[in-house]
Design a protein that fits this description.
Blueprint: E1 5-9, H1 14-25, E2 29-34, H2 37-44, E3 50-54, H3 60-74, E4 79-82, H4 97-118, E5 128-132, H5 145-165, E6 171-177, H6 183-188, H7 191-200, H8 209-220, E7 231-234, H9 238-241
Parallel strand pairs: 1-2, 1-4, 2-3, 4-5, 5-6, 6-7
Helix pairs in contact: 1-8, 3-4, 4-5
Bound molecules: nicotinamide-adenine-dinucleotide (NAD).
Length: 250
Amino acid sequence: MAGKTALVTGAARGIGLATTLKFLNEGRRVAMVDIDGEELRKVSSGLKNVLAIETDVSNPDQVDLMASEIKAEFRTLDALINNAGVADFGPIKETTFARWRRVMETNLDGPFLVSQACIPFMAQPGAAIVNIASISGLRASTLRVAYGTSKAGLVHLTQQQAVEYGEIGIRANTVSPGPVDTKLALAVHTPAIRKAYHDAIPLNRYGIEQEIANAICFLCSDEASFITGQMISVDGGFQAAGVGLPALRT
Ligand SMILES: NC(=O)c1ccc[n+]([C@@H]2O[C@H](COP(=O)([O-])OP(=O)(O)OC[C@H]3O[C@@H](n4cnc5c(N)ncnc54)[C@H](O)[C@@H]3O)[C@@H](O)[C@H]2O)c1
């Protein structure tokens, strides 16, 4: 992957930072994009071959500026990881339109806008988009009306991108992580939710950021050259187990 480039949104911490570090390790140059400028400057200052850009992925003007900066610096983009996301758990009746919009604009508008701005200078053929959804977008559960719906929409957006851009050689896939101990999860996973996840996940644990990054980087590699329009859950088996009746366990 030496000489190749990547853009990772939400790169200042968590899954986005782990993905950035793995890409750098592969020899790629990486554009690190995040709304949290202070954290972004802190982590990027110690890294080589990165272009750090403070951007809100839900703001069309900021996204256009960001894309021009990346185009001027990299010329071509080989991988785009739409990872920036926010979580907000609450019952439907307490989900105000403002809360709904905040989740939708980051988790769904963001990947749409960033992809639209970057695809014109992505490598054709050979480039790859990976959108980061969630197991919450695959199976409905209480409290996730906004978060789960945004991620379900993102799975479908990925398929739209795969179908429309396949003929110019751009692939698009989704990675749906299970629970990972990041700041996002710490904010919404109560002790009761944590215990229930451990119980419901066949591998009996949370994932780590690097395990999600491994799947993302694989999907961007030449090893995945015939894979497009797909969704991979990196979730310790949560999705495969379905509802899973505790009474039927041995
Ligand atoms: N951690 C989990 O358990 C989990 C599970 C499933 C899916 N995910 C998804 O993985 C992705 C990464 O999450 P994480 O757990 O690493 O979270 P995180 O909160 O540690 O990192 C998210 C990053 O996105 C940035 N961000 C938020 N809004 C932004 C915006 N509008 N513009 C630019 N940057 C923005 C934040 O500043 C932060 O640096 C998210 O899309 C999340 O929904 C996480």
